[in-house]
Amino acid sequence: MTDHALRLLRQDRRLAELAAFPFGFDLGRAEHGHVEEVRLASGGPLDVVAGDDSGGTYFVCADGSVLYADSEGAAGIIGSSVDEALELVIGLPGWRDCTHLSPDDGEETILACVAETEDDIRECYGIDEERIELRAALGFPERSPVELVGRLRAALLRIEPDFVLLNAEEGCAYDRLVPAGPPLWEPVLAAGRADLARLRKGDPTAWREVADDPVRRRITLRAAQFDRSEDDLDLLRHLLRHEARSSMTDELRLAAVLVGLHGNTADLPLLAEVRETDCDTACGLGGVPGPGASAAELRQWAWELDDSMFGTDPSDEPFFTWTDLASDQGMTELARVALIRELDSIVMDRSRLRRPDAPHLLDTTPLVMLVQGFERLADLPQALRAQRLYAALQERAWDRVSARHTLARLEREAGRPAQAVTALAAVREALATPGDDSLRHWRRVNLGRFVAEEHYRLTLALADAGRPEEARALLAAADALLGELSENAAKGLREISGRTAARVREAGRGRARRVTGNGSLRAAPPPAPPRNPR
């Protein structure tokens, strides 16, 4: 659809007033923006086109879709164009009370809900004559509430992954206006299921292409994990041989298990060959039964691994399996949104980190994996959110130093040198007053070297940013750390230490220059000699 109706509203004051009241699409509120700074998780553009009297805002996205965000932190797509959104808000003036409805609810339920909502509105002001007038003026057909609810539902389900709204300052995502769509594993497995079907049909091109493509091979093995067939042994052998090229992966172990579950002792030489691919596979598949094992022993080995690590229900698979596989397939926004919502849930409820075996302790590993996931997507703002929380939850001195060292690196890479300086100051404080004995050997191990190296890297960044005083101060701290390291720990830092010192000296000399009238730089003249005394 086009935005023809929007142009008419902008040209006709009477129509614009009708759209604003009673239908809550007020063009005049666009100049005020939203109640807070927001952005799309995908980084796409957002243009405010209208607002309503509850603090809600209508945004137009890059593809023309209209995103509605309320003032309470929820958002959703309500149309593929402004015209489509206008047709909805005019046809369903109480549409926000209909977001829970879907075509599956049936015509009777939908009509009853819409009638009740509109009767409540009529108790306050009229909508019927106004709707007829505005529809006619904008050229909209009269559609049934059932059709409009179906359109609304379809639009709302498009919110993820491309139109998720974030609070620009905090980075947290707005809630959905509609319940979540299909689980993450469904779109992630879709291509693998298609390839598995082609392999089962004996398509020779598929057998070659899937086996030669590491990503397609992994996804297809995952599809085979959750859709098992007695007739799959040949294709599983084929995928197992090729997956060994990637060394030790979860999917290599999965392929070995799926082959082993068939209990064919003729596969023992193949499993042994795969196990001996390299040192990693030798360790990762160390429990594979030997050449003389029976079919029962082979099945028992495979069953035990399957039971402890895999299984047949995709909803039991670790969350990060699906985000990693989404990233591998280029489903960047799908992975990003899933990671953001996972981080949001932890931020809102840290009890999710409690260890089942020791509820008084927190397992912060999910935060580490979130940081890694966001870094993989080059989403440093979200990686910083996760790392800040991770650092705040560390109690042991070693863990505090390590976490804040990583935080400093991320702040530096995100172009936030002041925050990086603060993080490194916290690192030095923890080294000076650890509070426990976990850091007693820090001067002799990699942690000390990594901390000193980050000081030098940040010093270089400060010098390059034209902040020589801060660079000199941090260089002094870096040199002091270097002086505390053992000879072995300090070996790899001599080059960056010298390079950083030279860069800081150069930055200092730059301060002694002055700008000429045409904007070029030249050296400042030497000070005038003292006047002769009289």
How would you summarize the topology of this molecule?
Layout: H1 4-11, H2 13-20, E1 38-40, E2 46-51, E3 57-61, E4 66-69, E5 74-79, H3 82-91, H4 107-122, H5 128-138, H6 145-156, E6 165-167, E7 175-176, H7 185-200, H8 204-212, H9 214-226, H10 233-243, H11 250-260, H12 268-275, H13 279-284, H14 295-309, H15 319-328, H16 332-348, E8 354-355, E9 358-362, H17 365-376, H18 380-392, H19 397-413, H20 417-432, H21 446-464, H22 468-484, H23 487-490, H24 494-511, E10 513-515, E11 521-523
Helix pairs in contact: 1-2, 7-9, 8-9, 8-10, 9-10, 9-11, 10-11, 11-14, 15-16, 15-17, 16-17, 17-18, 18-19, 19-20, 19-21, 20-21, 21-22, 21-24, 22-24
Task: Describe this structure as you would to a colleague.
The chain has 534 residues and is an alpha+beta fold. The protein has 3 domains: 4-176, no CATH class; 185-316, no CATH class; 394-513. Helices cover 56% and strands 8% of the residues. The chain has 24 helices and 11 strands. It has helices at 4-11, 13-20, 82-91, 107-122, 128-138, 145-156, 185-200, 204-212, 214-226, 233-243, 250-260, 268-275, 279-284, 295-309, 319-328, 332-348, 365-376, 380-392, 397-413, 417-432, 446-464, 468-484, 487-490, 494-511, and strands at residues 38-40, 46-51, 57-61, 66-69, 74-79, 165-167, 175-176, 354-355, 358-362, 513-515, 521-523. The strands form 4 sheets. It has a 5-stranded mixed β-sheet with strand order 2-3-4-5-7. It has a two-stranded antiparallel ribbon with strand order 1-6. The chain has a two-stranded antiparallel ribbon with strand order 8-9. A hairpin with a 5-residue loop joins strand 10 and strand 11. Helix 9 (214-226) crosses helix 11 (250-260), helix 17 (365-376) packs antiparallel against helix 18 (380-392) and helix 19 (397-413) runs parallel beside helix 21 (446-464). The longest helix is centred in the C-terminal third of the chain and has 19 residues, at 446-464. The protein is flat and about 85 Å long. It starts with a helix and ends in an 11-residue tail after the last strand. The model is unreliable at 514-534 (pLDDT under 50). Residues 524-534 have a biased composition (Pro residues). Residues 503-534 are annotated as: Disordered.
